Fold this sequence. Notes:
By secondary structure, the chain is mainly alpha-helical. Helix content is about 75%, strand content about 0%.
Amino acid sequence: MKRERLTQIVLVIVGLLNLSLIYFLYMDLRHSTWLLVQKNETEPMFLSFFIPVGVFLLLAARRPSEHRSMIALAAWWNISHGTVMAIQTVEAWNHGVHRNVTDVILFLVIGVVLLALLPTKREAVTPGVA
């Protein structure tokens, strides 16, 4: 029971973190910073991926064992995202560009924690058999 409660707490925290990115997406779109300042048209699109994941993680927090696939998807998505960002960070450093590694570590930790707390598979119950 404690593990399920911990899973619920982590899902709510990660879900709210992802959902909070709606503010940055709004500001990027409202002020066109993605175009005028950053010259990076992928930023708003990229941020938009986080928001629905946050919503679904919040929904999964109610009954984590019923949303195992969603939790696994979010975990592996964070791990793959953190891995790509780690490669980009190393490449940036190789080209003399400083890049902070904090976000890389954050995504990898979130992914590993979600995988560690992934609910076990539920046994299928055959109707009529107790």
